[in-house]
């Protein structure tokens, strides 16, 4: 499995256009449409209102996308990886409380992303209504649009499992055509009214917020914010293409986007008094400003761009979830790698959940206009949380004064956008808020459930492995006991002070003794470096008890079967452990014996154990164990489905299991002493 090379090149720039800018690049399909809807009808979209709106778009993209994300956030790369979880992994040592913004931001990003495929594909396909293609005239009914959108989205989600590498190669050229097309279309309309360029002045942006022509006041920012919702995805996708390719392509993308926005603004100003549009709402200036001969091409290329944006969102969600799993923020889910690159992954559970939610949104909202009313609310939370984490990063880099200025400015700016987006709650924003809360609840239960469980175990259920080394060595040599396995492997956490769960030692010694030539205790440590992959070996002054600390980055596969045979062969070659060449084998030159893996699943043993915990701990630990039982089994997670694995259910010991109310009432003994 390779890591995609991300060095600067023309090819890299083309790939960047296809991977990074899908979300933000399709925003011209719906942003100005949403702004007109805020005004009411075309007749209400007066020049002062439109100039102020496009000025707000320009400066929003400048301040949030360009300055915050491209110039500042991309400096906060974690071994070239970006995104809120990669950023959290970089700064988490600065305070335990930083998990809170990471959880809130990550859950909001996943939730709001469910609207991206729905709103982009629907906006693109709505241009087809009433259009004539040769002898075919498409229906003007919205239901026809919804059926086409559903077919497209289903196709996108179905192809995920087989991998999208070949399709992805065409994304860059298509997006280059898309950006060039929208830029040229915007420029041609802009030449009809160059006075629109006055909107480059921030004065127009400020004035429109307080102007009487702006009927929604500050809440217009909720629509303006849609222009920059892809900024967080831009930061998250940095690792796939390299920051230098983003630096090189963003000026071009920014210029094409603004040309199109200015072109739409010029068209609206020239047509807001046009009787054909006078009292019509729901007009999409993106399509209306195009000559009739270009509309068919525009619909096709817009649909392709929307599909690419959807694809980027889906794969981005897979990456985000994989990072969260690696950081122990989400439960384990089965991850596949259908392509030859580590960045090309597939998580079936997430894929079909996204599919169900996205198609539900399409039919629930019914039109892109209604979807726009709900879109963008949750992502403002993600941006605020990223600002908090970036503040810590800048402090970590000894830029404390700049960090404080950065924090105050962007908290105020993004807080303003959040406030303006709150009106969306009653218009459908509650959908993404509900999804955010559901994801956040799962993250909280899993993360803090692990913490509280480990706290209880640390108090009463850990022992020192060193105390049992003599018994393990004696058991290994005891020929009166049948061999259980040549190599007995426990996937368990062994602490730096050699502390280990009591249940592990009990499993080896106190049940039917498990005799093995070599006892392996493998600890998988998640590291902050995304693709780190190394290990340490501690023989503890023995030849048959091995402590392996396997250090894997939060983006690396945890299939230990990939690593374990490499490690044992290296130890045999170095004569650290004895040769295990079997007497009988069809494999020539085989020096490694059989393996048996033991994985322990903890369960509450009875109500008495639960009563020792307070209500919050019972909820967190019980919820964590429930999630453990309904998600992927540890054997599948560690890639051991074809290995000899024994899963032992063990009680979650919580101190002595006694009842203070048990008393002896009477002793009957008929036998004389």
Automatic annotation (TrEMBL):
The reaction(s) this protein catalyses: K(+)(in) + H(+)(in) = K(+)(out) + H(+)(out)
UniProt key word Transferase: no
The residue ranges crossing the membrane are: 49-71, 142-159, 171-190, 216-235, 247-269, 296-322, 343-363, 375-395, 402-423, 429-448
Q: According to the lineage, what is the superkingdom?
A: Bacteria
One family from Pfam that matches here is K_trans
Q: Which keywords does the record carry?
A: Cell membrane, Ion transport, Membrane, Potassium, Potassium transport, Symport, Transmembrane, Transmembrane helix, Transport
Cellular location(s): Cell membrane; Membrane
Using the record for this protein, list the coiled-coil segments as residue ranges, or answer none: none
Its cellular-component GO annotations read: plasma membrane
Give residue ranges for domain K+ potassium transporter integral membrane.
13-461
Domain K+ potassium transporter C-terminal as annotated: residue spans: 487-647
Q: What is its main location?
A: membrane
Q: Would the keyword Transmembrane turn up in this protein's UniProt record?
A: yes
Q: Which GO terms describe its molecular function?
A: potassium ion transmembrane transporter activity; symporter activity
- UniProt topology in membrane: Multi-pass membrane protein
The job of this chain, per UniProt, is described as: Transport of potassium into the cell. Likely operates as a K(+):H(+) symporter.
Family per similarity comment: Belongs to the HAK/KUP transporter (TC 2.A.72) family.
* Protein's UniProt name: Probable potassium transport system protein Kup
**Record organism:** Companilactobacillus paralimentarius DSM 13238 = JCM 10415
């Amino acid at each position: 499995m390779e890591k995609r090379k991300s060095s600067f090149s023309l090819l890299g720039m083309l790939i960047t256009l296809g991977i990074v800018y899908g979300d933000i690049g399709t925003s011209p399909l719906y942003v100005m449409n949403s702004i007109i809807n805020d005004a009411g009808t075309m007749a209400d979209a007066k020049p002062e209102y439109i100039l102020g709106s496009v000025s707000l778009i320009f400066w929003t993209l400048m301040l949030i996308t360009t300055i915050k994300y491209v110039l500042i956030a991309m400096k906060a790369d974690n071994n070239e990886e970006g995104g809120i979880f990669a950023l959290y992994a970089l700064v988490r040592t600065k305070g335990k409380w930083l998990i809170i913004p990471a959880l809130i931001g990550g859950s909001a990003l996943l939730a709001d992303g469910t609207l991206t495929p729905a709103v982009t594909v629907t906006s693109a396909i709505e241009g087809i209504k009433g259009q004539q293609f040769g002898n075919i005239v498409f229906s003007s009914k919205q239901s026809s649009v919804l059926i086409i959108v559903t077919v497209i989205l289903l196709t996108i989600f179905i192809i995920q499992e087989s991998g999208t590498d070949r399709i992805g190669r065409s994304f860059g050229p298509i997006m280059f055509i898309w950006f060039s097309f929208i830029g040229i279309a915007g420029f041609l309309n802009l030449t009809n009214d160059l006075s629109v360029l006055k909107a480059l002045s921030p004065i127009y942006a400020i004035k429109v917020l307080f102007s009487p022509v702006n009927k929604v006041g500050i809440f217009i920012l909720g629509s303006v914010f849609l222009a920059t919702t892809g900024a967080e995805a831009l930061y998250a996708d940095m690792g796939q293409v390299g920051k230098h390719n983003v630096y090189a392509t963003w000026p071009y993308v920014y210029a094409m986007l603004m040309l199109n926005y200015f072109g739409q603004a010029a068209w609206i100003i020239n047509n807001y008094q046009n009787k054909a549009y006078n009292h019509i709402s729901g007009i999409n200036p993106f399509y209306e400003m195009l000559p009739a001969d270009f509309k068919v091409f525009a619909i096709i290329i817009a649909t392709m761009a929307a599909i690419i944006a959807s694809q980027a969102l889906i794969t981005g969600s897979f990456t985000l979830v994989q990072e969260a799993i690696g950081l122990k923020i989400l439960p384990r889910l089965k991850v596949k790698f259908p392509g030859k690159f580590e960045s090309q992954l597939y998580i079936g559970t997430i894929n079909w959940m996204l599919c169900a939610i996205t198609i539900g949104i399409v039919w629930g909202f019914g039109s892109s206009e209604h979807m726009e009313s709900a879109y963008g609310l949750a992502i403002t939370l993600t941006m605020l949380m990223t600002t908090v984490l970036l503040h810590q990063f800048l402090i970590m880099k000894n830029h404390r004064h700049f960090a404080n200025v950065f924090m105050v400015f962007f908290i105020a700016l993004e807080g303003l956008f959040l406030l303006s987006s709150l009106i969306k709650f009653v218009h459908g924003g509650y959908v993404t808020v509900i999804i955010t809360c559901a994801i956040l609840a799962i993250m909280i239960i899993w993360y803090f459930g692990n913490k509280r469980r480990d706290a209880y175990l640390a108090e009463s259920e850990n022992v020192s492995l060193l105390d049992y080394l003599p018994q393990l060595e004696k058991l290994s040599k005891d020929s009166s006991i049948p061999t259980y396995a040549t190599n007995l492997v426990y996937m368990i956490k062994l602490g730096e002070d050699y502390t280990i769960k009591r249940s592990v030692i009990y499993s080896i010694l106190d049940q039917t003794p498990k005799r093995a030539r070599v006892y392996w205790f493998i600890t998988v440590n998640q590291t902050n470096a995304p693709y780190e992959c190394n290990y340490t070996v501690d023989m503890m002054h023995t030849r048959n008890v091995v402590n392996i600390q396997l250090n894997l980055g939060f983006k690396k596969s945890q299939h230990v079967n990939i690593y374990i045979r490499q490690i044992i062969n290296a130890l045999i070659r170095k004569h650290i452990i004895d040769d295990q060449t079997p007497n009988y084998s069809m494999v020539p030159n085989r020096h490694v014996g059989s393996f048996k893996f033991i994985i322990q699943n903890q369960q509450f043993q009875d109500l008495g154990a639960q009563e020792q915990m307070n209500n919050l701990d019972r909820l967190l630990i019980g919820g964590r164990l429930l999630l453990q039982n309904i998600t992927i089994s540890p054997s599948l997670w560690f890639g051991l489905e074809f290995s000899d694995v024994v899963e032992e259910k063990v009680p979650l010991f919580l101190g002595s299991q006694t009842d203070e109310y048990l008393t002896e009432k009477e002793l009957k003994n008929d036998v004389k002493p």
